[in-house]
Amino acid sequence: MASPPRRPGFDRDDGAAAFAAINGSCGNWHKLRPSRPRPHRGPRPESAAIDVTLSPNELLRLFDLLPDVVFFIKDTECRYTHVNQTLTQRLNIKRREDILGKSVLELYPPTLAARYILQDRRVLRGEVIENVLEVQLYPNRTTGWCLTLKQPVIDDDGKIVGLIGISRDLGQPDSRHSSFERLRETVAYMQDHFHEPLRVQLLAQKSGVSVAQLERLFKRVFQLTPQQLLTKLRIDAAMRLLQTDASIAYIGQACGFSDQSAFARQFKATVGMAPRDYRAMGRR
Predict the structure, then answer these.
(1) Among 128, 197, 225, 258, which one is most buried in terms of CB atoms within 10 A?
(2) Which of 75, 67, 64, 69 is nearest to 17 (CA)?
């Protein structure tokens, strides 16, 4: 069965379209331009673009309706100026007003806050962070996987005045996609062999498609690239093993990392803390 058609006017399904709606100063109005206007029959109008003006508070009302999406705007000091209801709930805070004006240093454990601050500072220097696979740790110590996008907020003079971001929970695979069954066999192979060196070329060969096709199909069905899914499998396994008494070196090797240093780097980049700190947190 073919996958369901996309919504008219938008050609991106990974959350990036939302960013197109939110470009400008935090206090200014923002514009949303559909990327694919509907076909027009007859004489072409002067402009096919549609301008929709949205204030930050109107955006908040929209994102409040998405329980699987965290939305926020921060100033140049990395302090929250706008947050949606999902972030408020996941921080276990009753009122969003109790978050505004605070930085992550006041709201998250130090190890996690340090990662978020470093990431925010990169964005405030002009970098766009797109589709970063991360583990979110919630107050009740449960974990969840998400894809994070952040970009600078730029005023009319071209000055960076803050940043805006979305973290979207990783959803279930699209089992209705025509390539789901074929890819499921590839994923089963990855689950059985993630502790080994795996190359995308090998996975493409097993799937009977080119590397470019495999990347595209994985994004459609799993919302991830093959490498991101491999990272997820390895980090999931590592988080489970860190609840045992196995050594850090053994866990890294058992999860497919070339050495302990490579394991520690990838774990910290994905989870936000070193493996040793994650283990200690679970034993408190």
Answers:
(1) 225
(2) 69
Note the pLDDT tens digit of each residue in 254-267.
999 999 999 999 99
Structure tokens given for 27? 């206090």
pLDDT at 136 over 90: no
Q: Does residue 1 fall inside a structural domain? A: no
Could you tell me if residue 5 is inside a domain? no
Question: Could you tell me if 79 and 164 lie in one domain?
Answer: yes
Sheet holding 80-83, edge to edge: 80-83, 69-74, 160-169, 143-154, 129-137
Helix (H, G, I), strand (E, B) or coil at 32: strand
27 and 145 within one domain: yes
What is the chain's Cα-based Rg?
21
Separation between Cα atoms, residue 198 and residue 229, nearest integer Å = 12
* Average pLDDT of span 238-255: 96
Q: What pLDDT, on the 0 to 100 scale, is given for residue 50?
A: 67
Query: In terms of Cα–Cα distance, which of 223, 221, 237, 222 is closest to 270?
Result: 237
- What residues pair up with 150 in beta bridges, in sequence order? 129, 165
Count of structural domains, the chain: 2
End position of a domain, from candidates 105, 137, 169: 169
The three-state secondary structure class of 80 is strand
Q: Is residue 231 part of a domain?
A: yes
Q: The tokens of 94 are what?
A: 């009753």
Q: Is residue 11 part of a domain?
A: no
pTM above 0.70, yes or no: yes
Mean pLDDT of 100-124: 91
* Distance, C-alpha 185 to centroid of its chain: 25
DSSP state of 74: E
**Which residue, 117, 147, 169, sits at the end of a domain?**
169
Task: Find the domain containing 107 and state its range.
Answer: 16-37+51-169
Mean pLDDT of 177-192: 93
